[in-house]
Amino acid sequence: MTLDVVMLGPPGAGKGTQATRVATARGIPHVSTGDMLRAAIASEIPLGRQVKAVLDAGQLVGDDIVIEVVRDRLGAPDALAGVVFDGFPRRVLQAQALDEMLADRGALVIVDLTVTDAEVVGRLSRRRVCAACGAIAGSGDAPPSDACSRCGGVLRQRSDDREDVVCERLAVYRRDTAPLVEFYRERPTFRAVDGTQPPEAVSAAVAVAIADAAAAVSPVS
Ligand code: AMP
Fold first, then answer.
1. In three state form, how does the secondary structure of 84-108 look?
2. Ligand 1 binding pocket includes 94 (Cβ within 6 Å)
3. Atom 11 of ligand 1 has which residue's CA nearest to it?
4. Contact indicator for 38, 44 with CB cutoff of 8 Å
5. Pairing of strands 136-137, 190-194
């Protein structure tokens, strides 16, 4: 049965780190709309030119654009058994479009990573991303080392992790994305996980939450 997962939570909640782990553990793709948009910007394709200023300002890209990006991605053969969404949906309209896109698939599990605003600002100011392999560094309490511990690549700060843009992204999250928690909360497959725990503890809790939510809707044999 297809099992799709949505990781919800504010910027810096650990969605990327946790989504990567879930995807690896379940052998399904990690679908980060932010990564896909940044890749489009880096490769200077028309989509990238269209969205660059929006990302730099910490605002949300148009719904039609991201919905199309996700629809394309879900059509790829490796998405058949399910995907882990990270950064999508970000508006109720996107969540409604996702429900339609997934209508013929199996269960959709929603994991909401909860963290405080103070924690978010601290984490994002420490966060670095490897320019070579995309690994996230500095996601724990320790400051990141100079080089990527996975591949030795150069670590960089995302342009939208600067403090002024982070405040804007948090405001956008509260206004546009937080309502998704209410949109999903009553579903039997919604689970909230305390994202302020150390990353390993969050991963364990996320794995339990997904298994528990999937069992809640799996057909009884
Ligand atoms: P992220 O890497 O998820 O923090 O996304 C980085 C940026 O990409 C966001 O601040 C938005 O500008 C854009 N973005 C990513 N996903 C979406 C989405 N689902 N809807 C609109 N904009 C998005």
1. EEECCCCCHHHHHHHHHHCCCCCEE
2. yes
3. 60
4. no
5. unpaired
pLDDT tens track for 81-92 = 999 999 999 999
Out of 6, 55, 167, mutate this one to test ligand 1's pocket (max ligand atoms within 8 Å of CB): namely 55
Q: Which of 37, 70, 74, 160 for a ligand 1 pocket mutation test, highest count of atoms within 8 Å of Cβ?
A: 37
Q: Is the pLDDT of residue 70 over 90?
A: yes
Query: What is the per-residue pLDDT across 149-162, written as a single tens digit (0 to 9) for each?
Result: 899 999 998 888 88
CA distances from 99 to 30, 109, 167 (A): 18, 12, 30
Query: Residue 147: which region, alpha, beta or left (left: phi > 0; alpha: psi -120 to 50)?
Result: beta
d(CA 47, CA 167): 26
Q: Tokens 């305390």 label which residue?
A: 194
Q: What is the pTM of this model?
A: 0.90
